[in-house]
Description:
The chain is α/β, with parallel strands linked by helices. The chain has helices at 12-27, 46-58, 65-73, 84-92, 106-119, 137-150, 166-176, 207-210, 214-232, 241-253, 394-403, 413-432, and strands at 2-7, 34-40, 75-78, 98-102, 126-130, 156-159, 190-198, 255-257, 266-272, 274-276, 279-281, 299-306, 315-321, 328-335, 346-347, 353-358, 361-370, 377-386, 410-411, 437-441. α10 (241-253) runs parallel beside α12 (413-432).
Amino acid sequence: xxxxxxxGASGDLTARLLLPGLGSLVAAxxxxxxxxxxxxxxxxxxxxxxxxxxxxxxxxEATGERETAVAxxxxxxxxxxxxxxxxxxxxxxxxGPVVIYFALPPAxxxxxxxxxxxxxxxxxxxxxxEKPFGHDLAGAVSLNKLLARVVQEEQIxxxxxxxxxxxxxxxxxxxxxNRILEPVLDASHVESVDIxxxxxxxxxxxxxxxxxxxxxxxxxxxxxxxxLGLLAxxxxxxxxxxxxxxxxxxxxxxxxxxxxxxxKFSRRARYTAGTIDGRQLPAYADEAGIDPARGTExxxxxxxxxxxxxxxxVPFRLRSGKALGTRRKEAVITFRPPPRLPDGLTGSxxxxxxxxxxxxxxxxxxxxxxxxxxxxxxDPVTLTTDFGPGDLPAYGEVLRGVFxxxxxLSVRGDTAEECWRIVEPVLAAWRRGDVPLHEYAAGGSxxxxxxxx
Length: 453
């Protein structure tokens, strides 16, 4: 018997992402003898919690006998997980090894970890924490030291559900299983790398978290830097956690802001009122729960250098924005043009590009060929194939690793610190007001002076 103890069980994250992922994993036969215990500040009882579990399982059609049994046996205990007495009561209610999932705001999760340090945990306990890990570099270092007093590093799973996306995982296979690609993925052949996550969604009720984070911390500092690590790392000898995470850590240690200049190589902006697909969005500053004086950005861009032999001189441009008219979620590798074209070839020659889309999960290659009609005229074409969707949703994939005691898809402590180090100069410049906060209309394409083409 293993107990999954969820702190923040009555919250949106648990209902929308965590429980559907768990239901998918149980339905796939990935768990046996699971006890599910939820805890939160809300005065729920077992029946209400069981309804929440059943509804979330049903959203992914996880309604078989195994899933139904888990939902019916689930228990709920109201508690303040920052209090030692409440934590002891919760741990006493758990059977077997315990997996504690912190579905909490980062500041509350840190306080709960401090309380656990005083209480102690049963042998074999695993801790699962959501991003962002800490609120800055010093905070991440401090939290790592705290967690090291509670459990061993191998028992800490810093969850970045982006690493559970099948397309992101497929980057490793795409790069290292194809001789035609790997030799040309370097500074000799690549002109630039763009990693973009543009959404057509607005705030969607996340003011409590988002206004204290913003696009840079919410997406770039965590998700997109993890994608950069997979795109730029050297081939690991195995896909075991130690090898794969060592390779990512090496790349991130070599990553810094381009020319160390946050004014020139970072951008921030927030959306004003506008229309997306016929839906009227208010300005971000007018959304409920937002403090306009914070100057929180809803779009962030940075340009990074990866100072390794393979990538020296290649700009990595990272961008994430909300309430944009075009939904764009992809990594794009743009290759350098050929040294020259033979005389006689005509037509438009676009750069060759390798595109890895994160939604829908797709691989595309932009090429120039001799098209129909005039055989001497070049035509641009795109070759496309879809990635497999994966057996589980992202949270199900991450949870599978947690229960299997496999940290491959979790962020290691030193890597979490490196991600903060990379963005700290940008955050500092923004706090000083060195980089202006631009505006863009919801439903538009973002600020006019974008760092991306």
